[in-house]
Known about the structure:
The complex is a heterodimer of chains A (338) and B (517). Chain A has helices spanning 2-11, 13-22, 25-39, 46-71, 79-100, 105-133, 138-157, 167-175, 183-201, 203-213, 215-220, 225-251, 262-272, 284-303, 308-337, and strands at 177-178, 181-182. By secondary structure, chain A is mainly α. The mean pLDDT of chain A is 87. Chain B has two domains: 17-255, 3-Layer(aba) Sandwich (Rossmann fold); 265-511, P-loop containing nucleotide triphosphate hydrolases (Rossmann fold, 3-Layer(aba) Sandwich), CATH 3.40.50. Chain B is an alpha/beta fold. Chain B starts with a helix and ends in a 6-residue tail after the last helix. Chain B is built from 19 helices and 24 strands. Helix content of chain B is 35%, strand content 25%. Chain A binds chain B through residues 197, 200-203, 206-207, 209-210, 213-214, 216-224, 276, 278, 280-281, 337, and chain B through 318, 320, 339-341, 343-345, 350, 352, 357-364, 368-369, 372-373, 375-376, 381, 384-386, 388, 415, 428.
Amino acid sequence: MERTAQNFWSFTLPLQRLFVRIGVLPFLLVIALVVFTSLSARFLTSENLITVARQATYLAIVAMGQMLALLTGGFDLSVGKIVAITSVATALAMAPLAAAHPDAMAMTLTLGILAGIAAGTMVGVVNGIGVAVFNVSPFMMTLGTATISFGIALTLTSGVPVYGIPDEFGTIFSFGRIFDIPSPVYVTAGLFVAMSILLNWTRMGRYFYAVGGNIKASHLSGISTRFYLFMAYVLCGALAAVAGVLLTARLETGEANIGASMPLDSIAACVIGGVSLRGGVGRLGNVVLGAIFIGLIQNGMDLAQIQSYLQEVVIGILLILAVIADQLRQFVMLRLKD
Amino acid sequence: MATETLAPAKDMGAGLAPPTPILQARGLSKQFPGVLALDEVDFELRAGEVHVLFGENGAGKSTLIQILAGVHRPTAGSVLFRGEPVDLQGVHHARTLGISAVFQEFSLVPTLTVEENLFLGAEVTRGGLLDKAALHRRAEDILKQLGFPLRPRQSVQDLTRAEQQMVEIAKAFSTDLSVLILDEPTASLTDREAQRLFAMVEQAKSRGVGVIYITHRMSEIRRIGDRITVLRDGKYVATLDVAEADDDRLLQLMTGRVISQVFPQIAYRPGRPLLEISQLTTADHMVKDFSLTLRAGEVVGLAGLVGCGKSEVGRACIGLERIVSGRITFDGEDVTGHQVREMLDRGVFYLPPDRREEGLVMVRNVRENVALPWLGKRPFSRFGFLDRRSERAKVRDVMRRLNLQPPNTEHDLERFSGGNQQKVLLAKGLMTPIKVFILDEPTVGVDVGTRVSIYEFVRDLCEGGAGVLLISSDLPEILHLTNRTYVMYRGEMRAELEGAQITQERVLANFFERAQA
């Protein structure tokens, strides 16, 4: 028994090293691709993969914001309601403008988008003030602002969708394609590049990691820890707001009831992508891969005609498995070190 | 005749085989990542004795009692309880054997009441429900017996530190006790409370309880100790009776080592005053009316017991403590109450005592840690963006000088030994010209090799014209590295010693409370 266990251990050594280095996500992606390709012939077609990419963009953007909150050792439960309030604000700004100035389309779109992003970012600002200045736990703070935002969004719309958004909005920001790639994918790619520069090549990015890794050591290194905590939530709110604008373009209405699954899905994308819940660790590329993975799973299950209620079950299980896999990774890492 | 020869033989027999010790350690070793905290230590505790553990910080006292209390498990060696080997599985297991410990770090749940804490994990139940009446009676009994002025239904978080200590002690007494371990129990007690504790210890002793007692205070050793075991650098040094242990002998045993190999000679060429503290009092009153001067090219020591306020002096200088009165000037300018960023930019660097707690970002790599305080400056950033290439080059260069092992600056800090982590912490102060280094316990938990390189580092800084304020509980460090030394006691300055005046006797005379003769 002992002997076979030892053999098994040494036999899988290269696999373990790979696991420690790249984490669980690439393994999951490969498994998902194999399973869904065998389940449905339509899965591995370029048209379907483009659909996956477009569906995953919204989550990918929110997850990039969520990652900032997680890096600093907190999290943001309000991202879903930020998406909702952004959608409502965008629609409420655009509809009357479009009606009053049917010729000034560019202005209407610009102002509408700005209004939406401003509304969503404001929630982030409030989160940031609560967490950084008043030391409210991120859990309570973002849960509180989520409820507040939802309440405001419902009050503004009386719970019904806001119509009157010009068609051009959806045409440009959702259905438009350049070289056959949907426009939201370009927005996501642009944000990815910007975030990648922020995290890897600026002080602010470096400080997010440092503050989450050890806030006292960061303070002793002369970093204004409050400011960077604040900024993490502001940027998280802004990114969620961008996702809210794009989703509004997709739906062509302002909706207070969208984004409900965003908090869980975005945290899941980050965790599956190897972001530590204790803060200080995580790679942007893996977070986006995590979001794509979740999109892939949902799409694959759609094609395999697994009903959406059951999909929720699968996502929940995957999230827990990813966390367990991360623990396992720590364990394997320690064993390999000996 | 026959009876006469038998009698002494019987006596001899008794003398050769003393009663089985209640608790024994044989060849105990404990390896922590990067540090061998205990190295084949033998120890024995007899029933009805108070056995004092004596040694410097980091000598292994805490590790030893933690193993005996079941907190840690030894890497090698064995523990014998009443002559039988035992494998202590945890604190609870030790407690069922009657081994109870009161550590400096309390193990109380602040939101629960005194009585709930006393019986935590050992609650009395009746029919599956808590028998609260019985628990309350027993709590009252124990507290009355010990004479502690505590009400069983008080919430622990409302108690003072001394009162919480009493709860810890009462908790130890609430089980059937055979071994009691006390780690500096009087540190937060008033004299009267301490006297009561001594009486309790005497009482426990007379019932045959073996007591392991850690203290730095000579007067306490004489007051209640029977035997003393001295540890140094994780190794067993000696065990002696209290009667044959005078202060000099103990201190020699505690600190003795081949000093000339460890400490470098530092040329003493004091220049202009760099850092001046005058009549400083902090908001928490850990520092009271304290004054100090540090010149360029000087190593100034700040000595005293743990908690005497010496660390807070350093923290006040870098902007971590709130100052209520007094002045701090740096290079002739008033910098009282300035923030960390400002002090770093002016050229004051503070090295914290606990590198994991507030020194390093353990989950990030060496390069990011070393550069962290200086990212806003050239060559680390240009046009608002990080210049990772020159960052890497500069950090690599410094870490090569400090002999980082393994020499990879892209590894996370978790992968380095304690000594190498300490080098990374020091390197943070080498990235820009720093004029004043405040080193707070720079050699805690590092091996001798790293210790030597840290001392050489201090020499290089000092001879390079910087001022070094060495805050240390390590006596040899103070004796052999500093040109001048201030000794603190309970937040106030006790003595300022210079050059040849800095001797073990003189420093220690001011370390402890004045003899209660």
